[in-house]
Design goal:
The protein has one domain. It is an all-alpha fold. The model has no long low-confidence stretch (mean pLDDT about 80).
Length: about 90
């Protein structure tokens, strides 16, 4: 896990007074109504995955991406989305 409590305030202007909708959400780890705060490091990994996917396709145009394509495409992205789907869904719906 990345220290998103230190990273996000430097990048985004977030409302620190945002509280959980109920004690049940707070107990489950969703201590805010802000999706970025609730997603934690998942958002940073999602951005990194998107940048990596764009880089692979740009390198594919230059025919340099055979090794990266074997490693990352599509197994890595599908596993990430399957593992993080519920946490991203809940964080965005609160």
């Amino acid at each position: 896990m990345l220290p998103t409590d230190l990273i996000y305030p430097k990048i985004f202007k977030l409302d620190p007074d945002s509280e959980a909708l109920s004690i049940y959400f707070d107990d489950a780890g969703y201590s805010s109504t802000n999706a970025l705060i609730n997603m934690g490091s998942t958002y940073l990994f999602l951005v990194a995955n998107t940048v990596l996917l764009i880089a692979i396709f740009l390198l594919k145009l230059a025919k340099l991406s055979k090794k990266l394509e074997e490693i990352f495409l599509w197994n890595y992205f599908l596993r990430f989305m399957m593992q993080q789907y519920i946490s991203m869904y809940l964080a965005s719906m609160i």
